[in-house]
């Protein structure tokens, strides 16, 4: 079973940047399709970005060109670099690991963007 822990959230002004990290247990990280999701208050959890084990990436249209997902296999960590942040990016951000049919989630980290 995978354990995921997000970090790096916080309060930032519009136009600013944050980098989120998600540390995963060593035993599973190398085979996981890793992704970031986010959930704003009163809304459903939405997909943000995905990175394959080989480093191929895909992004939601709302963050394309502003966010970058990456992974470090040596550190068992996936990152989300968020630039040009907007108030509508405010949400709890969750890390997701899918080694196959199963899916694992971290507890989330809060990102708040003030206008």
Q: Helix amount, in percent?
A: under 10%
Whole-number radius of gyration? 13 Å
Q: What is the overall shape? A: globular
H/E element order: EEEHEEEEEEEE
Helix-strand category:
mainly beta
The separation of the N and C termini measures 40 Å
How many distinct helices?
1
Number of strands: 11
Mean pLDDT: 95
Q: How large is the share of residues in beta strands?
A: over 45%
Main beta sheet, described?
A: 7 strands, mixed
Question: Which ranges are low-confidence, i.e. pLDDT below 50, for 5 or more consecutive residues?
Answer: none
Describe this structure in words.
By secondary structure, the chain is mainly β. Helices cover 3% and strands 52% of the residues. The chain is built from one helix and eleven strands. It has one helix spanning 26-29; strands at residues 4-7, 10-13, 18-24, 33-39, 45-51, 57-59, 67-72, 77-82, 91-98, 104-105, 109-114. The strands form two sheets. Strands 2, 4, 5, 6, 9, 10 and 11 form a seven-stranded mixed β-sheet that branches. It has a four-stranded antiparallel β-sheet with strand order 1-3-8-7. The longest helix has 4 residues, at 26-29. The protein is globular. The mean pLDDT is 95.
Please describe the topology of this protein:
Blueprint: E1 4-7, E2 10-13, E3 18-24, H1 26-29, E4 33-39, E5 45-51, E6 57-59, E7 67-72, E8 77-82, E9 91-98, E10 104-105, E11 109-114
Parallel strand pairs: 2-11
Antiparallel strand pairs: 1-3, 3-8, 4-5, 4-9, 5-6, 7-8, 9-10, 9-11
């Amino acid at each position: 079973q995978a354990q995921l822990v997000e970090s790096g959230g916080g309060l930032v002004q519009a136009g600013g940047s944050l980098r989120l990290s998600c540390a995963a247990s060593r035993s599973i990280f190398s085979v996981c399709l890793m992704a970031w999701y986010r959930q704003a208050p009163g809304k459903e959890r939405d997909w943000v970005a995905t990175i394959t084990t080989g480093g191929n990436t895909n992004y939601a249209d709302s963050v394309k060109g502003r966010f970058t997902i990456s992974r470090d296999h040596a550190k068992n960590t996936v990152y989300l670099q968020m630039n040009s942040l907007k108030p509508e990016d405010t949400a709890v951000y969750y890390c997701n690991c899918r080694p196959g049919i199963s899916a694992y989630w971290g507890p989330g980290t809060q990102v708040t963007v003030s206008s």
